[in-house]
Amino acid sequence: MPHPAAASGPMPDAAPPAMEAESLLLDECFALYRAKQYQDLISVAESQLQRASHSVGGTEHAPVVAALWGLVGLSKQALSDDKAAYAAFEAAIRASPEAGRYTYQRYLTTLTSRVAHQLLDRAETFGKDEEDERVATLKQAALWLRRGVGVAPDDENLRISLDRAREGLWTAYDRIANVLVQRLEFDRARQQILEALADEALPADRREAFQDLLSSTHAGEIEQLTAHAIRALQDGQDQEMLISLGRTTALLSSISEDALAPKRREEAYRRLWWAYTKLGLRRVEAGEFEAALEPLFHALKIDLGDPERRQETREALVRALEAIADSRTGVIGQLLKDGQREAALAEGERLLTLIREGMGSGLSYDEMTQILTKTRCIIEQVQQG
User: Fold this and answer.
1) H or E element in which residue 238 lies
2) In this predicted model, what pLDDT tens digit does every residue of 13-43 receive, in sequence order?
3) What distances in angstroms separate CA 279 from CA 226, 242, 305, 307, 362, one per listed residue?
4) What is the separation of C-alpha 152 from the centre of its chain, rounded to a whole number of angstroms?
5) C-alpha triplet 70, 74, 75: angle, nearest 5°
6) N or C: lower Cβ tally within 10 Å for the chain?
7) Taking a C-beta distance cutoff of 8 angstroms, is the pair 220, 181 a contact?
């Protein structure tokens, strides 16, 4: 039986040989297609396909099943339901014997090409303020074209269209990311860049450019965070400063070595050291010795390869620990006089913990001699009761 023509291409020349009932079913579906009664055709065909999925049939039924899926796909396409049409053509390809598969593959590639070109044309209509819409549309076009190429890898037209979609998408990513960097919206800029870098088809020259741009977003955000921390320090907003420095440290730890230039990384750590040290020194000068420990410990853990800079931090930390040791030993002595040995032991353990942390941060035994001597004496008193 001649198959009806379709907008996407000709149907098979004749229905596959099958049992009489199947032949009658196909005749009915062909007639519904000719009459453009697409919804009725879909109902009849899908009902039969559902029954077929629950039955154990031989390979002689495969051409009929494939033909029904093909008709469903063409009907869905006529009803502008492109996603459902694609799924139906895929099912037809899976069901069809290899000899008859080409027809359904052609339906699918024709569909993907048409949908993708509509999306590509639409992407070109967006203005400068609609880059997000352009990206979303180009991503959809590339997705449709990859599907088509997956079915027909030798189709040159599909490959040319896919290259066009990818080029447009990479250009849009680059444009959006640069605008976002200028606006200091680094998180959003990185999202665009990482999406581009995730594309395995990205050419080497473009990949290098995106990696440079990624490095710029890291450096820009680090500079923004440390600048905010320094302003907070100057305004006396210590907690705000510590939050910014913590975020900077976390960001630096998450950035791979090749994603940030060594000089920029070194400069970022120098800013961190400076801010932590200045806050610690300010607290030491104010007699806030325990509060000075946190920023000084952070500063001492940053190795700039500059002993003179680190010495400033070490001296401030030793000074704070000595003052704390003096205060704590006095407290412990008073607790012993009052007969509160357990409380004295707890105070002694807290003091030892601070000393261990100081030495773990890099303070030498010589620097800690005075503190250790005082602590050892008071601990021995506690242990002797």
Assistant:
1) helix 238-254
2) 444 444 456 778 888 888 998 999 999 999 9
3) 13, 9, 21, 20, 19
4) 31
5) 115
6) C
7) yes
